[in-house]
Amino acid sequence: MGSDRGQKVAVITGASQGIGAGLVDGFRKLGYGVVATSRTIAPSTDADVLTVPGDIAEAATADRVVAEALGRFGRIDTLVNNAGIFIAKPFTDYTDDDFAAVLGVNLAGFFHITRRVLGPMAEQGSGHIVNITTSFVDHPNSNVPSVLASLTKGGLAAATKSLAIEYAKRGVRVNAVSPGVIKTPMHRPETHETLAGLHPVGRLGEIRDIVEGVVFLESAPFVTGEILHIDGGQSAGH
User: Fold this and answer.
1) pLDDT of the residue at 5
2) What is the pLDDT, as a whole number, of residue 1?
3) What's the angle, vertex CA 131, arms to CA 70 and CA 22, rounded to 5?
4) Is residue 220 assigned to a domain?
5) Which segments of the chain does DSSP mark as H helices, in order?
6) Is 88 exposed, middle or buried (0-12, 13-18, 19+ CB in 10 A)?
7) Which residues contact residue 13 at a Cβ distance below 8 angstroms, ignoring those fewer than 6 apart?
8) Tell me, what's the pLDDT at 2?
9) What share of the chain is helix, strand, coil (3-state, %, to 5)?
10) Rounded to an integer, what distance in angstroms lies between the CA atom of residue 44 and that of residue 31?
């Protein structure tokens, strides 16, 4: 089942719940075809949403996502690297398995799929990549020890600028969104009050705050290499 040729197409990782599911809805509202992937994702009843289950840390998943996206829709215009693992522990409590899991999803996942979409994007002379990072990268907080998040998502923040410059003359933009703590299934309700207190505005972010930020970047052709902080003021200070 192909799409009409004018339809743009977004690939979204970590798309089964939380911010990822919000992004699927957000891009569908823009009229995009969407390829949604995560470890466990159910088929969609929407003919313009193609779901591809798989572990984004594995190169084979990226191969499948890109091949199925091009097979169904014939193009890829936007990639949102939303899949992420966040493990908050004191540094010496991290295990080798924690390290492997976080690097696998946050960095290898970014690498495998981004490398594969950049070819088709550069060929068509247009494209947009958005990486989801975390406010802890440039605003660590002693209440939430999170070195592995900073190590990996900090790598994404640096790669965002580097890729933006490498591809600036080829029509491909690369940006990032740096969220504060967002109200998603990842955070138990009893933690919400404490987490809200981390933000100068005194509340958690909503999924729509992040979706609207990504949609803004999507519609901003002169913006590339930008790291947009959607974090209730955390990056500015306390």
Assistant:
1) 59
2) 43
3) 75
4) yes
5) 18-29, 59-73, 96-102, 109-124, 147-166, 192-196, 207-218
6) middle
7) 20, 37, 38, 56, 79, 80, 81, 82, 83, 109, 113
8) 46
9) 45, 15, 40
10) 16
Q: How many domains does the chain have?
A: 1
Which residue numbers in the chain have pLDDT < 70? 1-5
Beta bridge mates, 215: none
N residues, the chain = 238
Does the model's pTM come out above 0.90?
yes
> What CATH number does the domain containing 223 carry?
3.40.50.720
Q: Which helix (H) or strand (E) holds 221?
A: none
Domain assignment of residue 237, yes or no = no
Per the structure, the complete domain to which residue 27 belongs is given by 9-230
- pLDDT confidence of residue 136: 85
Instruction: Note the maximum CA span of the chain.
Output: 53
215, HSE (Cβ side, Cα atoms, 13 Å): 18
Examine residue 236 and state whether it is found in any structural domain, yes or no. no
Query: Residue 156 has which token pair?
Result: 């994404």
State the Cα–Cα distance between residues 19 and 213, nearest whole angstrom: 12
Buried/exposed code over 129-164 (b: 16+ C-beta within 10 A; e: otherwise)? bbbbbbbbbbbeeeeebbbbbbebbbbbbebbbebb
Is 235 inside any structural domain? no
How many Cβ atoms are within 10 Å of 5's Cβ, its own excluded?
Answer: 8
Q: Given strand 172-179, what is the order of strands in its sheet?
A: 49-53, 33-38, 9-13, 78-81, 127-132, 172-179, 227-230
